[in-house]
Amino acid sequence: MFSIREVSARPLGLVALLGLAACDIELSAPMATAHPGDATPRRGGTLRYASLGDIRSLDPARSSDAVASAVIRLVFAALVEFDEQGRLAPELAERWEVLDGGQHFRFFLRQDVRFHDGSRFTADEMKRSLERALAPDTPNPSASYFRNIVGYDSYVAGKVPHLDGIVVDGSHELSIHLTAPDAAFLPLMTLPSARPVCPSAGARFKSDWHPCGTGPFQLRQGGWSRGQFVRVVRSESYFVKGLPYLDAIELHFLVNAPTQRFKFEAGELDFVRDLAHADTLRFARDKRWQPSITRGPDVDIYGESMNTEVPPFDNVEVRRAVAFAINRKALVALRPLHLSVHTSAIPRSTPGFDPTFEGQTFDLPKALEHMRRAGYPFDPKTGQGGYPHTLPYLVYPQGLFEKSGQLVQQQLARIGLRIELRLVSWASYLSLTQRRRTVAIAPMGWSQDYPDPSGLLDPLFGSASINDTESSNSAFYRNAAFDALLARARVELDPQKRTAVYRECNTILRDDAPWAFTVSYHAFEVRQPHLRGYAPHPVHAFNFARTWLDRASAVRSPLEPAR
């Protein structure tokens, strides 16, 4: 899914100075807990955190970014989910069977589940929800993930009214038939678009529907104000007895990094990820805070996405030049506690990552040679030549890209590619970079949807993921040989053979360069000690469903209703 990450917007020249100054500014002490040493979960309270970004939709059929998906997982449960160790575990399904050599999945559903509107969850509702998410008029960026379901092609083409491969076997029994074995099928069922929605959502997507599911929290009327906040409250009908512990969770949007830090120290936020570089150093070096710091796994990749349908990046030689021109170590220096050099499409923490694979490299002479082959020779001494047009380069306020873009601008200028940074909102950045033939080059981040290479390669580079708008394949990259390898990997059940196929995929991407892969990202998270039961999840960000609060003194949010 599209990833939004954290860095404050400060001039590059101040980075080193701020890093030194971080040692000289004292942080407030962590706030006290009411019951130190007692790990008994307690009910009540509102957990608050904030984001630099915003969300466009809370409809699981439309979700494609990490900020929205974190809220969606609270409101909408899944048939299967990843547990705290990253293993697939039952959720709405009590159990499942894999039949016919992996082409038939039969799910036995819990019978004690109700939607937030009080209606019963049944196999019919599950079928309706899946068909709604995959309908041809639904703006679902991940619909093609499910292309192996029998009848998918006819259904998304609008030729038939229902998906033949989804069969209701009984009130709480559902079968899904595939055209071929699919090694990623169960992980796919954890995605937002595979999560059941209330009957009020109807059989087809509608933009004005009020989000309603079966998760531990529910969204009440007035609980979401675009550009300001979303507040979800405990669902008293949640099927896991005793959970959740929290009364509510609030996410506040478009809060810059310095403000988040001040609110966090004042106790107005319980958790923070969006820290300026200097503040990250301050927390990391303060022994009082170290027990409350967690670092997430490397499940994100970043790079420069080049639109292969738009000049000059319809020329593979220009794309190769960009891949060779970027000094990734310089980018890492911007956020050394978060970033590491990464030159391929599969993150280190994703199963199937091959540490022996030789990815893209920084080599300025080779970059200049590829520009020459493209027909745009450039003389670094005189500054003459190169691509004759300046290219817009979109970044959003306070994000990592606002800062890294300045370095990329300098590095590409050395090979005769001139980019102009343009500041847009997070929503505009997503909309424009996902729209066909609109943006030539853009910085891009992606977090794995599930722990498998297909969770990155299919949405980012598979031709089936190309849409005119809301396209997860922002490079609009199309390669028949690559698509064939993706399809082959999905039906290959032997892990070693799958890894070998994905190595071939990585080789094609390295050489075709729809992205210049640059860095991977791991979260640096700080929480107040009174936020208990929290640990980074191996798959999902913002793992709050089983946390509880143990504040020594109450802090009431203005969003909480009066009692």
The figure for the number of domains is 3
CATH topology of the largest domain: Dipeptide-binding Protein, domain 3
Mean pLDDT: 92
Instruction: Determine the strand fraction and express it as a percent band.
Output: 15-25%
List keywords for this structure.
563 residues, alpha+beta, D-Maltodextrin-Binding Protein, domain 2, Dipeptide-binding Protein, domain 1, Dipeptide-binding Protein, domain 3, 3 domains, five-stranded mixed sheet, four-stranded antiparallel sheet
What is this entry, summarized?
With 563 residues, the chain is α+β, with helices and mostly antiparallel strands. It has helices spanning 15-21, 66-75, 123-134, 152-156, 185-188, 257-265, 277-285, 316-325, 328-332, 364-373, 400-413, 426-433, 454-461, 480-491, 495-512; strands spanning 46-50, 80-82, 88-90, 93-99, 104-109, 166-170, 173-177, 217-218, 224-225, 229-234, 248-252, 271-272, 293-295, 300-306, 339-341, 378-379, 384-385, 391-395, 419-423, 441-447, 515-521, 524-527, 531-532, 548-549.
Give your account of this protein's structure.
With 563 residues, this protein is of the alpha+beta class. It has helices at 15-21, 66-75, 123-134, 152-156, 185-188, 257-265, 277-285, 316-325, 328-332, 364-373, 400-413, 426-433, 454-461, 480-491, 495-512, and strands spanning 46-50, 80-82, 88-90, 93-99, 104-109, 166-170, 173-177, 217-218, 224-225, 229-234, 248-252, 271-272, 293-295, 300-306, 339-341, 378-379, 384-385, 391-395, 419-423, 441-447, 515-521, 524-527, 531-532, 548-549. Strands 1, 8, 9, 10 and 11 form a five-stranded mixed sheet that branches. Helix 1 runs parallel beside helix 7 and helix 14 runs antiparallel to helix 15. The radius of gyration is 24 Å and the shape is globular.
